[in-house]
Amino acid sequence: MADEQQAVELSLVMPAYNEQDRIGPTLREYLEHFTAGYGERFEIVVVLNGCTDGTRSVVEAVADPSRRVRIVEFPQLLGKGGAIWEGLAVARGESIGFVDADNMVRAPEAEKLFQALDSHDLAIGDRFSGVEEGGGQNLGRKLISLASRLWIRLFLGLPYSDTQCGAKAFRASAWRVLAPRVVECSWAFDLDVLANATQLGCSVAQVPVRWKHVTLGSKVQAWKDVPQTLWATFRIRRRARRP
Questions:
Q1: 61: region left, alpha or beta (phi > 0 left; psi from -120 to 50 alpha)
Q2: Domain 2-240 bears CATH identifier 3.40.1790.10
Q3: Which candidate, 164, 132, 160, 168, places its Cα nearest to that of 145?
Q4: What residue spans define the domains of the chain?
Q5: What is the mean pLDDT of residues 77-99?
Q6: What pTM value is reported for the model?
């Protein structure tokens, strides 16, 4: 077992909440792409986050007979951030990261984040400096996104173009320092990570990525998630001010 753990160079966490219709193609693409570059030296940790559909069966069908896919299951909803946190906690790679099950950021783009770890502690996908494919977001979503980005920059002082991209990577050593400080379990998880990384002086690479907005099956509910994330920024700022 020790030799197997040492052989894992890269770990990808993929949180999944009722993703039976989207995770199959995403998982197949990531397996194919990273197998070509890493062989047996990577793993994908799928975190089943309170799933009530057939997500587990889909993952098992794609993973079999691959030993590079591990399933971690929680019967209760953890929140997206909570699921990512738990996945990162069991990741065995020297470089670890997470991506969405909807394949918004394709596998070759995600690999760019891991390459950036050669010179940085963290790497975050930057959609707004990259290329958007397909029809993209509607006007309402774009306006909400713009307002949120301005608020985050002004209120939290985070100098990043895109804090909410669902693709990020860490040196495992950097994540071990950050993990005890990250407590937000919802969509504000990313903000909590970056606020703490900034406070600790971690180096963060912003990596432009090609991306495609995926509406079908999206779990984002702007009417609920935006206010919750807004309130979370107050908690994050309050914690940042503590000695």
A1: alpha
A2: no
A3: 164
A4: 2-240
A5: 97
A6: 0.89
